[in-house]
Design brief:
Blueprint (H helix, E strand, L loop, with lengths): L8 E4 L2 E5 L6 E4 L9 H8 L23 E3 L5 E3 L2 E2 L24 H27 L6
Antiparallel strand pairs: 1-2, 2-3, 4-5, 5-6
């Protein structure tokens, strides 16, 4: 009869923690557990990578091309609403793509305060000039 090896475990309050057979990470287990293999080690055994790798491969087409009513690729392939239309291949000129608009940079809080101060200063100057004109009997434009 084979002897059962009990792996290292400890109690934290009423909860039992046991070390993984392969990597030594501690997991929460029941009282009757003899050995443990953590989820990470199981995934490695099954063949799943530890970290998910990016599956995105760029096609060279502009973003949102599949939402266009009609899009013609550089090689002449024609798409209607993202679905290929093989009958029209090579009959239309390639779609010209406009470059994306440049985004304006967000102003800092300091810059916003400076701009607000300058606006108030300009409004005050205008009000002072209007009062001077009124006192000098210059009305209208």
């Amino acid at each position: 009869m084979k002897k059962k090896i009990e792996y290292h475990s400890y109690y934290e309050g009423n909860v039992r923690h046991m070390a993984c057979m392969t990597c030594g990470r501690y997991e929460v287990v029941g009282d009757s557990t003899i050995s443990l293999k953590c989820s990470r080690c199981v995934l490695i055994l099954v063949g799943f990578p530890e970290e998910a790798k990016s599956t995105y491969k760029p096609t060279g087409r502009p973003p949102g091309w599949h939402f266009m009513k009609e899009f013609v690729d550089k090689d002449g392939t024609v798409f209607h609403q993202g679905k290929e239309v093989p009958k029209l291949k090579g009959t239309l000129p390639p779609t010209k793509v406009k470059p994306p608009k440049k985004k304006t940079k967000r102003r800092t809080k300091e810059q916003i305060l400076i701009d607000r101060h300058n606006e108030k200063k300009a409004a005050l100057k205008k009000a002072v000039k209007k009062q001077k004109d009124f006192l000098n009997h210059k009305f209208g434009g």
